[in-house]
Specification:
With about 120 residues, the chain is mainly alpha-helical. The chain contains 5 helices and 3 strands, in the order αβααβααβ. It has helices at about 5, 50-60, 70-80, 85-95, 105-115, and strands at about 35-40, 80-85, 120-125. Strands 2-1-3 form a 3-stranded antiparallel β-sheet.
């Protein structure tokens, strides 16, 4: 067979050479992310209190919300610095008062991906 017969025609499209998305979870196939321990390593004294975060995020008159990482840090600070990921996720949903962004991940996976890149957060299994 000639080489030109194996090549796709100029109008055809193939996904063969498309790189994987950069959002691929590094723990593909691993279950039980919810049991991972999440610890806050930052300065708890400079973190807003969970009461303050709650007041801002639950007030319908306030036009803005605190950032997700601020909520995470406040929850962890209020809970002695360490929680399991699934419990942290429940608390974040409660105090952030908005849905997590839609993504190719579950909420648990999304929070893991965000937290694993934070210099003030340690996630261990």
């Amino acid at each position: 067979m000639e080489d030109y017969e194996r090549q796709p025609s100029p109008g055809s499209v193939s996904a063969k050479n498309i790189p994987r998305p950069s959002t691929t979870l590094s723990l593909v196939g691993k279950t039980g992310l919810g049991k991972f321990k999440v610890s806050y390593l930052g300065d708890k004294e400079s973190t807003p209190s969970i009461t303050e975060v709650s007041r801002i995020n639950l007030d319908p008159r306030v036009q803005f919300r605190t950032p997700l990482m601020t909520v995470v840090q406040s929850v962890l600070s209020a809970r002695n610095g360490t929680l399991e990921l699934d419990e942290l996720l429940r608390e974040v949903r409660k105090y952030w008062n908005r849905p997590l962004p839609t993504s190719p991940y579950t909420d648990e996976e999304f929070l893991y991906v965000v937290l694993k890149e934070s210099p003030d957060i340690r996630v261990v299994d």
